Amino acid sequence: MYSDRINRLPPYLFAAIDEAKAKIIAKGVDVIDLGVGDPDQPTPAHIVESMCQAVRDPSTHQYPSYTGLLEFRKAAAQWCRQTRGLDIDPVSETLTLIGSKEGVAHVPLAFINPGDVVLCPDPGYPVYKIGTQFAGGKEHIMPLLEENDFLPDLEAIPKDTLAKAKLMFINYPNNPTSATADLKFFEEVVQFAREHNIVVVHDNAYSEMVYDGYQSPSFLSVDGAMDIGIELYSMSKTYNMTGWRLGFAVGNRDLIAGFGKVKSNIDSGAFDAIQRAGITALTSSQQCVADMNNIYTERRNVLLKGLRELGLDVKPPKATFYVWARVPEGYDSMGFSKLLLENAGIVATPGVGFGQYGEGYIRFALTKTVPRMNEAVERMSKLKL
Ligand SMILES: Cc1ncc(COP(=O)(O)O)c(C=O)c1O
Q1: Ligand 1 center to residue 205 CA distance, Å?
Q2: Ligand 1 pocket by Cβ (under 6 Å)
Q3: How far is the CA of 354 from the centre of ligand 1 (A)?
Q4: What are the Aminotransferase class I/classII large domain coordinates in residue numbering (predicted)?
């Protein structure tokens, strides 16, 4: 009944956890869910208000432009200039996305022919591999290892693979490891991509979720990056807008044009009212972002203290709202997440769900309030490991 591409989808590794979670909830356990990376706080009021006004304007009710409202693209380009000093043309170098997941899933269709190779980080956001497969490409896994600070070892990619490689996904600040990358790494990527003729897609969904004074650099700010790459930005985590579905791509104009061709044949653009709310988010005071980051910092500190008391090896993340921890001796990632769920009522994501190199780790999302984080830590302290 299903196409080969559906039949070839990898098994859904979270199914066992979902099932166990449903059983625990049915028993009446007060579950603390630190599994999904979905902000718990509402979208800031000024953004919601802007949407309410926009949706009352009938001119927003018609088909949007394929490439996105020019005013939204101008706001995105201006935001890129203000936050990262990028010089982006809103007309030819910017594209509105219906969330960055849509971008990740569709971008291979523009550049990948059957049999071409896409370099995908592992552990990583699963859509890199799925988008590759849906486009008929073959993924080549770039392991993100702790001893390499969770950066891929570009030199380790075999020559015959490189000959077929057309596209590379990178993602810093990183989901799930919460690792960050510096400009030196981005420079290496640009040089490598130019040498081997590879398009680079930098998924920057966590660009603004930063702590302790850290600022995440832009891949596109490196010399030569605009020749070979694009960056995907997301409104989801930055402005608590996961449900709204809005993001944007910026970068090389030919790449943006190719990507735009795919989108104009598949979707009909993001709802104009949502883009108007997006303009408000990007052009208003960014205090709401700083406030959220302070909230996540406090939660992070509570969880880190608790995990360390438990003997788990964790480094404080400088970015993202994830804590990536090694599971205790004697457990694999699935086994430890089952233990957390069944004996402490805590949902966390087993690292293996992000790929084979995620085995041995578990991911906690900082999506519950400080009192709930304290409660989670308290429950974990009673576990017998
Ligand atoms: C690394 C990464 N990229 C992209 C996305 C998709 O974000 P959205 O489609 O909400 O913009 C996510 C969401 O969790 C993510 O973790």
Answers
A1: 6
A2: 37, 99-101, 104, 125, 171, 175, 203, 205, 234, 236, 242, 247
A3: 13
A4: 30-379
| pLDDT above 80 (res 277) | yes
Do the Cβ atoms of 30 and 341 come closer than 8 Å?
Answer: no
Residue 37 Cα: closest atom of ligand 1: 14
Looking at the CA of residue 101, tell me the nearest atom of ligand 1.
9
Q: State the burial class of residue 348 (Cβ atoms within 10 Å of its Cβ: 0-12, 13-18, 19+).
A: buried
Tell me, in angstroms, the distance from the centre of ligand 1 to residue 126's CA: 10
For range 171-186, the mean pLDDT: 98
pLDDT band at 286 (very low <50, low <70, confident <90, very high): very high
How buried is residue 382: exposed, middle or buried, by Cβ count under 10 Å (0-12/13-18/19+)? Answer: exposed
Nearest to 100 by CA among 123, 63, 127, 137: 127
Q: What is the pLDDT of residue 20?
A: 85
Contacts 24+ apart (CB under 8 A), 132-138: 132/108, 132/167, 133/5, 133/8, 133/9, 134/5, 134/105, 134/108, 134/109, 135/108, 135/109, 136/112, 137/108, 137/112, 137/113, 137/166, 137/167, 138/164
Strands 361-365 and 349-350: antiparallel
Instruction: Report pLDDT for 16.
Output: 74
What is the model's pLDDT at position 15?
Answer: 76
Q: Letter for the amino acid at 150?
A: F
- The rounded Å distance from CA 202 to ligand 1 centre is 12
CA dihedral in degrees (368, 370, 375, 378; nearest 10)? 120
Average pLDDT over residues 126-140: 96
- Distance from residue 314's CA to the centre of ligand 1 (Å): 23
